[in-house]
Amino acid sequence: MWRLLQAVVFTLVLFGNIYWEWTPNGLLASLLGVAAAFLVTVTLSGLFDLFRRAALIGKKRPSQSGSAIISPASKLLNPADTIRPGHKQLR
Fold it and tell me: Containing domain of residue 12, as a range?
């Protein structure tokens, strides 16, 4: 689908150059067409990506519930190694 869009933009730039004669050089007109097709593709794909990410922000994955997440640091700590205020350390 992107290739079709790029071909249409490229063709429109070339036809615009033929009608309005932006440049007498055909190579420069084709380079302008390639640049325009690239910019349209990057802009639209960036917008679609932003919309997709915005839609995913509101959704929570099941693995992201509060009790299911255990940090790797908490796995390394032994409860006997930590001292809580007001408690005596057991040996």
Answer: 1-52
On whether the CB atoms of residues 41 and 6 are closer than 8 A, the answer is: yes
Q: Which of 17, 44, 43 is nearest to 30 (CA)?
A: 17
Q: What are phi and psi of 66, to 5 degrees?
A: -60, -40
Q: Buried b / exposed e across 71-91, counting CB within 10 Å, b at 16+? A: eeeeeeeeeeeeeeeeeeeee
> Is residue 66 a part of any domain in this protein?
no
Read off the tokens for 23.
């440049």
| pLDDT at residue 32, rounded to an integer | 97
Count the Cβ atoms, other than its own, within 10 Å of residue 29.
19
How many domains, the chain?
1
70 within some domain: no
pTM (two decimals): 0.61
SS3 80: helix
